[in-house]
Task: inverse folding
C-alpha cells in the first residue's frame, strides 16, 4: 500500500508498506513483477496529478551493471525503492559450425564392424554436420561380427584353423579398422599365389590392388620383419651343428624373394657359433660384386675363425655359375692363409638351395 504525506519542507513523501506485500502470496515470473511495478507507478502518478507535486527523482542506476537497462518511456515514474527490473541482455545466436566445434561428436569404437555407418549431411548454410545414417547392414550380412569370430577361431585353433586368405585378412585388419578386407585378401592371393609371395611382393605391385595402401604395406613389412627376427634368434649364438637347418631356413626366408643379388657372410667363432650375419654387397638381377679383401677385413674385426658364404639368384634357379665357383675358390684360398675356414657356400633360389660342399665344389 502507498501513503502520501507533506513534510516540513513542503515536499510530499511517498512510502510503501512492505509488510503487507510480504504476507501476501508471492507472484511468479518477471511478468508479474513488472505488472505490479507499473500498477504502483500509475497510483503515484495519479496522486501527484491530484496534489500538483512532483516526486523526488530516482537515484541513478549503477552503470557497471552487466545487464542492459531499458529506458523508461516519457511520463513514466520509477519508484525509488522499487524500480522496474532491468531487461537481461540477449545471447547472440551461434551458427551450426560453432555448435559443432563446441560439442564434437566423439568417435565410436565399433571393433571393425561395418553395421554402424556415418554419413555427412549438408545443411542449407553449407555447414557440415556429422549425422548417424539410418542405413544399416542386413541381419544376415556376413560382415556383422566377422572380425570377432575370425579372431576367436584363430586364437582357439591356431594357424590350421584359418585359410591362407583369412590369415592375410587378419593382417589387414589393423590397416583398415572399418572395412571388409576379405575381397582384398583374396585379390592379393590371386595376384601373387602364396602368403609368402604376398608378404615379399614389391610395393609398386601391391599398390595396384584395390584396398592396398601404405598402411597395408606397412603391416606386411612388420610381419615379415618379425618372422625373420624369430628365425635369426633361433640360430644366433648356437652351435652350427645343432642349428644347420635353422640357418638354411633363415637364409631362404631373408634372401629367396629378393629382386637383386645379395652377397651375405655368416661369421662363426672358434666353437662354430654364429657371431653375426651381414650383407656385404647388393648387385643387379644377375650379378653382385664381391671383394675378397673386405670379407677378410671384416672377419678379422669380429675375430671370426670360420665363414659361411651365401648369395641368392633372383631368377629362382639356385645352380651356381662358373663365376660363382671361381669367386668361392679365391675367397677360400685367401682365408686359408689367414687361418680362417670356409665351411660352405650356399646359393639360394625360390626353387630351393645348392650347397658347394654337398656338390664337392669346396
Result:
Amino acid at each position: 500500500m502507498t501513503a502520501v504525506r507533506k513534510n516540513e519542507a513542503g515536499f510530499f513523501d511517498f512510502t510503501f508498506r512492505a509488510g503487507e506485500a510480504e504476507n501476501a502470496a508471492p507472484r511468479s515470473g518477471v511478468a508479474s513483477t513488472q505488472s505490479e511495478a507499473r500498477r504502483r507507478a500509475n497510483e503515484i502518478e495519479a496522486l501527484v496529478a491530484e496534489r500538483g507535486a512532483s516526486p523526488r527523482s530516482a537515484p541513478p542506476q549503477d552503470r557497471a551493471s552487466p545487464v542492459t537497462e531499458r529506458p523508461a518511456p516519457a511520463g513514466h515514474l520509477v519508484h525509488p525503492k522499487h524500480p522496474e527490473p532491468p531487461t537481461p541482455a540477449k545471447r547472440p545466436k551461434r551458427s551450426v559450425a560453432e555448435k559443432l566445434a563446441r560439442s564434437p561428436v566423439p568417435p565410436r569404437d565399433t571393433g571393425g564392424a561395418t553395421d554402424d555407418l556415418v554419413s555427412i549431411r549438408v545443411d542449407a548454410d553449407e555447414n557440415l554436420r556429422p549425422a548417424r545414417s539410418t542405413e544399416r547392414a542386413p541381419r544376415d550380412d556376413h560382415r556383422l561380427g566377422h572380425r570377432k569370430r575370425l579372431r576367436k577361431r584363430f586364437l582357439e585353433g591356431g594357424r590350421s584353423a584359418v585359410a591362407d586368405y583369412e590369415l592375410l585378412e587378419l593382417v589387414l585388419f589393423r590397416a583398415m579398422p572399418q572395412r571388409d578386407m576379405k575381397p582384398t585378401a583374396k585379390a592379393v592371393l590371386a595376384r601373387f599365389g602364396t602368403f609368402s609371395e604376398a608378404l615379399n611382393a614389391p610395393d609398386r605391385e601391391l599398390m595396384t590392388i584395390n584396398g592396398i595402401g601404405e598402411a597395408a604395406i606397412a603391416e606386411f613389412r612388420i610381419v615379415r620383419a618379425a618372422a625373420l627376427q624369430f628365425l635369426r634368434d633361433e640360430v644366433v649364438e648356437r652351435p652350427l651343428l645343432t642349428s644347420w637347418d635353422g640357418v638354411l631356413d633363415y637364409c631362404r626366408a631373408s634372401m629367396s624373394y629378393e629382386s637383386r643379388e645379395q652377397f651375405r657372410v655368416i661369421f662363426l667363432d672358434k666353437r662354430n657359433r654364429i657371431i653375426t650375419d651381414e650383407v656385404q654387397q647388393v648387385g643387379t638381377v644377375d650379378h653382385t660384386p664381391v671383394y675378397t679383401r673386405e670379407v677378410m677385413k671384416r672377419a678379422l674385426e669380429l675375430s671370426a675363425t670360420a665363414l659361411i658364404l651365401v648369395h641368392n639368384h633372383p631368377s629362382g634357379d639356385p645352380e651356381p655359375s662358373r663365376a660363382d665357383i671361381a669367386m668361392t675358390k679365391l675367397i677360400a684360398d685367401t682365408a686359408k692363409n689367414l687361418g680362417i675356414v670356409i665351411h660352405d657356400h650356399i646359393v639360394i633360389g625360390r626353387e630351393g638351395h645348392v650347397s658347394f660342399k654337398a656338390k664337392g665344389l669346396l
User: Anything to note?
Assistant: Residues 10 and 53 are 10 Å apart (CA to CA). The two ends are 125 Å apart (CA to CA). The longest helix spans residues 30-51. DSSP finds twelve helices and nine strands in the chain.
